[in-house]
Amino acid sequence: xxSIITGAFGFSGRYxxxxxxxxxxxxxxxxxxxxxxxxxxxxxxxxxxxxxxxxNNLIKQYQPKTIYHLAGSFTQNFEEDYNSNVITTKNxxxxxxxxxxxxxxxxxxxxxxxxxxxxxDCPIKENAQLRPYNSYGLTKIYQKFLMDYYVNQYxxxxxxARPFNIYGKGASPLLFIGNLYKQISxxxxxxxxxISLGNLENKRDYIxxxxxxxxxxxxxxxxxxxxxxxxxxxxATLTKDLLKxxxxxxxLDLSIIDSNSRPIQANDSSVIFADISKLQRLxxxx
Amino acid sequence: xxSIITGAFGFSGRYxxxxxxxxxxxxxxxxxxxxxxxxxxxxxxxxxxxxxxxxNNLIKQYQPKTIYHLAGSFTQNFEEDYNSNVITTKNxxxxxxxxxxxxxxxxxxxxxxxxxxxxxDCPIKENAQLRPYNSYGLTKIYQKFLMDYYVNQYxxxxxxARPFNIYGKGASPLLFIGNLYKQISxxxxxxxxxISLGNLENKRDYIxxxxxxxxxxxxxxxxxxxxxxxxxxxxATLTKDLLKxxxxxxxLDLSIIDSNSRPIQANDSSVIFADISKLQRLxxxx
Lengths: 286, 286
Fold this sequence. Notes:
Two copies of one chain form a homodimer.
Chain A: E1 2-6, H1 11-19, E2 23-28, E3 42-46, H2 52-62, E4 66-69, H3 78-99, E5 104-108, H4 135-154, E6 157-163, E7 165-167, H5 176-188, E8 195-197, E9 203-204, E10 206-208, H6 209-222, E11 228-231, E12 237-238, H7 239-249, E13 257-259, H8 277-284
Parallel strand pairs in A: 1-2, 1-4, 2-3, 4-5, 5-6, 6-11, 7-10, 8-13
Antiparallel strand pairs in A: 9-12
Helix pairs in contact in A: 1-6, 2-3, 3-4
């Protein structure tokens, strides 16, 4: 009885490995950024999930009770994101089908699948139209249909979380929040004297990484196979307000920020937030 | 001012090349089965659309007014169908974006995208839920989302036909109708004494290949960019009745048929037919 976490050294993976009390197999392809694993129950397996044989061997060896498939990429290079988000998933699902058909798998989607969200579509539900405006979102949709197919056709036990804007230390510097944390660190070390950010006047559905992890575990425990759950706060937070909160925690204030007050782009809705009633029912129904 | 037809030597491609009066560039990867091109306006270009450079050169050289992208596969090998149905499309779209952004492109989807159609969902509309039960249908869904993405993000001019059960001589022997024609030919030559077929008691939306081609041309002419059109008869035909019609045309009768009266499978709906009102409006709105 154990769990596998792929992408264990990514942003979410680092938080998740600390939160699971089962024996955890941390799977990682990348050689870099592997810190010591604090939890005695955890150990590390190197596995390139793009390699079908490696994926098969992994699943065959551990036959895990649960698989948190957090590995993925958002490079916006279609081929790379397709491999990281779709092919790794397909290799895991094929391996599970063959060697461990009772494993329960959590896949991680993205609000980027919804894409061109209009204010009147909010709060956005899981069955909303999918209209991605970047190739990352496109590959996450491909992953979603892969889930449907393996659930319908092979009765695999798969649930999907669809997170909105996650914040917390360790986020990728490619995203707004990660970029902010990176600049805060550079500011504190004296390497930069100002922090430059984009549009702060939009409202997004921000959710703290520790809440995200709690919801992932809940979805894994109680979610219905084949279903997707928005993972979000259900509220629209002004980006500037979130920024103030984070700066406050760091003992800084807004005066050090240079904000680019560029006009809102066609693809840049002013307000986006999620309907989280489906997620909430997983808690209330207990 | 010319047209490109990919998969020009496939089942639909052979009929289409005969029906277009423009100058036509027939694109084919496969070396086999290339018959002479009857129409003086047509000529043949060898091009492997999986090769990005080849696709770029093709589009750069001809800058076609229209592209009928009929190439594709339904091998049910996921990687192969993904390449034939998704990557060829992506290479064409990327090339069009770069070298011929005004080209209008027709993509060919499939009723297999709808997948698990229930009788109560019929007549099935284009916005129905997509629940494929084979990997071919899955790759066709991937192609559909690719269209959405290139239309939304790059304003490419793309329309999509979603054909149901096509019949006519030349259909792939992997499909019911193609298999029937193949056996008829073997029967006539004396190579077999009986024709063996599967379930004849289901009802499907059968449409004759020449009607399909007419609709493809109409969708190319009048369809709205980004939209999908069911290409079907709108009626449920008992497979046995279609069989009688075809045998009749061949001067044969039902007595030579061995039908497998296997019970209907979970995935095998007894009745499937399409809502074709969206297609019909393309004719009535003229």
